[in-house]
Every structure is written in C-alpha cells, then in structure tokens.
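Hi team, as promised in this morning's meeting, here are the two structures we talked about. I've kept the exact order from the run log so nobody has to guess. The first one is mostly here for context; it's the second one we should focus on when we meet again. Sequence first, then the predicted structure tokens.
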Amino acid sequence: PYDPQQAPSAEPDRAKAPPIPAEATRLLTHPALTGMSRELFDRLVEELEPCRRVLAEAEREKRKGLNRRGYNPGFGFLDHRHRVLAAVLSRRNTVTLTLTARLLGRDRNTLSYHAHRTMPLLAFAAAPDITAAITQRRRTRPPRTIEALQAVIADYESNIKSGSS
C-alpha cells in the first residue's frame, strides 16, 4: 500500500536487486572478453552516459500521459556500467548471457533485455580504438562454463606474454 507520508522510491527495482560482486565485474571486463583494456571500457561507459540520459528522457517524454498499465515488461534493474558490459559481451559473443547473468547474480532475461536495449548506444562510441574493439569478429562458440571462461582468459594472457618476449 502507498503511504502518502513517504516519498515513493525513484527506482524501486534498484532496492530489490542484490549488489553485483566486484570480482564478477572484474572478470567480465577482462580484455580477452571485451576486446579493450579496462581503462578503455571505463571510458566507453563514461562516453555513453550522456547518450543514455538523453534517450531515457526521450522515452519518459514519449510515455508521458499514457496509460502505463502493462507497459513495464517486468525486467529487473541493471546499472549503466553493467548494461554496457552486457551489450559489449553480447555484441562480441565472447560469453553467453546465461553465464554472464549467473556471474552477475541477475536473471538471464534481465541481462538480455538490457543488453539489447543498450546495443544501439554502442554506435555512439567516438574513439576509434573502442569502435575497433566493438566491431571485431564475433566468436562462434563462446564459453558456457566458468572453467571454459577462465581457460579463454588464460590463453589470452599466455598469448600476450609469449608475444611480448
């Protein structure tokens, strides 16, 4: 029930969602998976934030005054950084969304919904090095287990070390 003495929460889903483990974020932002360094990924997230705000405001304006019953598809909250991460991983097909969702502690459908809604934002990436990383060829068989994911990362790191010696 609604209590008029208490202000409604701006984003009620955020309060319900458990925090995403930092080690899962660190694992999933590995350059072997995103195709870019963690610093470039952070820059991408920062670059896309103003675009996200503009699109979110346009969406709110579009819905203003409409009957919102049945509008919310029921997908949980995901912060901007993890939306971009899900979109990049989905675009590059380096990890299955099922495994990503398990690592992040979210539902696969939630991740898929936010990844596909965020994917158009990737077109606004201005830096050529970020654009090159996003448009690299997709993997045909992404890892489906944590062990396979760790093997991909280990293989990437061994190739980096052997290439630099």
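And here is the second protein, the one for discussion:
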Amino acid sequence: GQKHIFDVRGGLPFADGSVAEARSSHFVEHLTGAERVGFFNELWRVLAVDAVALIVTPNWSHACAYGDPTHQWPPMSQWYPLYLHRDWRAANAPHTGFTCHFDHTIAGSWDPALESRNPETRSFMMNHYTNGWRDLIVTLTKRA
C-alpha cells in the first residue's frame, strides 16, 4: 500500500526548512478543508526557501474528482493556489487559517479521449468542457 507521512495531528516529520523538493500525487483531495490548511502550512514550514512542491489532484471539472467516495469536498480547482499566496490571501481571504506563502504555476493533463485532438482543441476543451482536464498539476515555490 501507499505510505503517507503527513499526520493531521502531528504534521510532517521534518525540520523547518530542511526539504529541497516535495511531491504529492492524488493525496490532497482526500483531506478535509481543515486538514488541507494544515498540510499546506506544514509543507511551507518544512520546505527550504525557493524549494518546490509538485501537487497533483483530480481537476474539479473531471468525473474522477467526484467518482471516488473518499474524496473530500470541495474538489480541487485552479483557485486553490491563490489562497496559498500571502498577498492575495491578505486582500481576498484573510479568514482561511493559512500561514504559508507560495508562488505557483498551473498545468494539467487531459483526458485520454483527447489524445488524438490537436493541441489547440485540447487546450480549449480542457478549459471550457467537463471531463477535458483530468489532473490539476500545481507547482508551488516556497517564498520567505
């Protein structure tokens, strides 16, 4: 089975600023909202400044985000990384409980049914239709 090192009660078992890179694939969507806040705050704590974390989740507009009954609400969307940035959060969502500060980039993977389509069509479908953008791939960079 898979091994998870994040303990919602105890955090991540690493010293402050000691991690150079982190990856999480299809884990965050299983956390409750409060657990997600704790996870991203802990991730920020353990990463070194300018270190990156790659976070992969099902995209909110794909059926796989809703198909697994162990996924928690809400599904993950392109908006969530905004809440992880200190300045955006201060202006728009100071109530959230996040203490982290990340810059981010967003990418995605398309549904296999789109493999044969040209890149422009895939891009349009990923952004405008359900079941086009299967995975949401967010790269977070820790800022001081």
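Starting points for discussion:
Strands lie at 19-25, 47-58, 102-110, 133-142.
The longest strand covers residues 47-58.
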